[in-house]
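Exercise 3.2. Students should predict the tertiary structure of the chain below and write it as structure tokens, then compare their answer with the key that follows.

Predict this chain's 3D structure.
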Amino acid sequence: MKHTVDAGGNVSTVRHFVLLGFSDLPELQGFLSGVFTIIYLVVVIGNSLIITITILDPALQRPMYFFLANFSSLEICYVSVTLPRILFNIWTQNRNISVLGCATQLYFFLILAATECFLLAMMSYDRYVAICHPLHYSLLMNPKKCAQLAAASWLGPVPVQIGQTCQIFSLHFCKSNEIAHFFCDIPPILKLACGDTSAQEVSACVITMLFAAVPFTLILTSYSKIISTILRLPTAQGRAKAFSTCSSHLLVVVLFFVSASTNYLRPKTSHSAGTDTLLSLLYTILIPMFNPLIYSLRNKDVIAALKKLFLQMQCHVSS
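Answer key:
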């Protein structure tokens, strides 16, 4: 049971939290509603198009695009954890969320964030094998191996995040039930807890290091070997072609890990509602919106597949 203390010193059960995100901008509610609706549509449509072409186009039936399809599926799920709730709060001006609803949102957010880290690591491993060990690529990245790596990325975080969510919501909340954020995240929830939260903070830090720092280290190791191999290629054309196959992924990695790690690994004293909201907007909403553009505009195979899909759709409509 979650408890809070009222003005008379009596203990009462907390049945819900209040998400305060964007409530301090009453004159911008209509504008924010329009912006977030457009962003959500862009994320869903853009990533759905990538999933569609990787399934339909034979030229994209390769491990690189198998992982890209998984990544696009993840981005749709990831944004759907937070954005629909933001839109509901704005449209109804009802910012209450039940304790169970808050725990559920946090649980799926943590799982999908960890899965994103692992998928980015798998994608960098795929590029490492393709560039550094091209003769063994089909053997090392066969369909069974790719399916196993993807399944591990999706399912691996589940038991750990169940435990972390249960640990956080086993706390008593006696300071307030108002969460100074637009979704249920660990730092603003811990601020509402009474008593010592050091165990939860240490646990969150350790899990963040496990699910973020370890994949990031693997990514850095892969790209250090990739860059070393590319620089040894004899022709400038060969170097440019090799680097073009991984530049989009590298850009996504930098954007995601820099913004997320800045938010979660900062000292507790430097956290503020405004800064947390801006950083969270970046890695939970804005980066997923730009990912389809990054992968399509910087990848000739994806551009060609999209043109082919649109031509087929146009011909089907004309007929």
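Discussion points: The beta strands are 3-5, 11-13, 16-19, 96-98, 178-179. Residues 1-12 have pLDDT under 50 and may be disordered.
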